[in-house]
Structures are given as C-alpha cells and as structure tokens.
Amino acid sequence: MAVAVAVAGVTTTNRSCCLASAHRRTLHRHRHPAPPRASGAVEVRVCTNRTCARQGGREVLAALAGLTPPRVDVDSCGCLGRCGAGPNVAASVGGSIAVFGHVGTAARGAQLLEHLLGAAEFNAAAELAALAAREKAEAALEKGSAAEAEVLLNEVFGLNACGGMHLVYRSRSKTRLAIGDISGALEDAEEAIRISPRFIQAHLLRGDALLAKGEYCAAEDAYADALDLDPSIRRSKSFKARMERLREKLVSATNP
C-alpha cells in the first residue's frame, strides 16, 4: 500500500526503487585507492527522464549537488514512475526508500534535505543563502572580477552552512589562483579534498596550484589522482591542456 507524506509542499510515496588506471612515471610514489564513501551515506536520485526534465529535473539535480554535505550521494536516474508529478526524487536513508514528487525548485530541494537529514545537521535557510552567495561569486569570477568573488566566498563561511562546502573551497581555490594567491589556492584545494576525497575538480585544482608553485612532479601526481577517480577526463580538452602545460614546464625545467 502506498503512503503519501507532505514535506513543505513536496509529496512522497513509499515504493521499491532500483537505485583504468593512469600511466605512472616510475619515480612516482605508490598510490592508495580512493577512500570508500562515508558510513551512513544517504542516496538521492533525481529523475532526469523526459517529463521530469521538462519540469526542471536537471536544474534540481544541480541545486541538490550544490547543497548536499559529503555523506549525501546525489546523482541522476531514469523514470521513477508518477510521471507528471515531478520532478521526482528518490531517497534512500537507512535502507528505507521513498519517492518525493514536485521537487521543482532549489528551495524545495533544500527542504527535502532538511527533512531527510534533520534540522540539526542541515539548515535549509542557511544552505540556500550559501548556495546563492557561491553562485554569485562564480558569476563574478566568470566576468573577471576575482577580487569580488573572493569577498563573496569569504562571506559564505560566516553562514554556518555544511552542504556544498567542498564546492565553496573549490571556487575560492580557482579565485585565488586567478589573483595570484598560489599558497591560498593550494590550501583551499586540499581542504576541498579533505571534505570530499572523491571530488575530481579539487584534485585538478590542487595540480594547478602545484604547477604554479613549480612543483611539477607533485602536480603530475595530483592530476593522476583525478584520473584515477575518472579515467574519462583524459579525453577532455581541459585535461589535455593541463597535460600540455605540464609537459612544457617539465621541458623548460630540463632544458633551462
């Protein structure tokens, strides 16, 4: 029997739901496999199939990914049924699975997370304010206003948010690289990795900061760590550009 529950305008129905290694230089240190996901992880799956996609499923997926703390695993999924009542979101907490409907905005996504995690861990209002500040900072950085972006990102730390902080440190690392604060950029990338060890962009930014510091072998290690997590990035233009910059630096260092 289906049981419907209202969560701040979001409806839910209990139902069943199915939720190569990089090349290494011989002088590099031995690598350990990526750490497993944290115990007590919560799984959230957002339907991005046709109907839910038209109702904003992809935008909700992006918002949830930017709001969640590391123990919440957010990803897309196929149709969850209940078409027309979306965007639909499936959540698995402690082995209990439920499907929530009408999760059509970032605000409703935040309310859903507060419901799943509890207000003591996740304050929807604070998390939404942090998300808005980070997005505003990233827009400023895209326009070339790195100093403004850093000010906005620094303000996020006063909001007592817990979700998406690896993204805040990622953004501030990019910002600090842009203004020439290489040590600060490296610290932020490493903090993002501490919060979310499987966060590929943080490993890439750590490599960028190390490259800027002239620590070329360490930079290559950082890029390889990202490649370990997702070998497919080898084909991306940005990764190829990083490898080319690294190669040029290594050649220059070898032939001064």
TrEMBL record:
Superkingdom of origin: Eukaryota
The signal peptide annotation in the UniProt record is none
Kindly give the SUPFAM superfamilies that the UniProt entry links to this protein: Thioredoxin-like (SSF52833), TPR-like (SSF48452)
Keyword terms: TPR repeat
What are the start and end residues of each TPR repeat?
200-233
This chain belongs to the protein called Uncharacterized protein
Organism in which the protein naturally occurs: Panicum hallii var. hallii
What does the organism's lineage look like at the top? Eukaryota, Viridiplantae, Streptophyta, Embryophyta, Tracheophyta
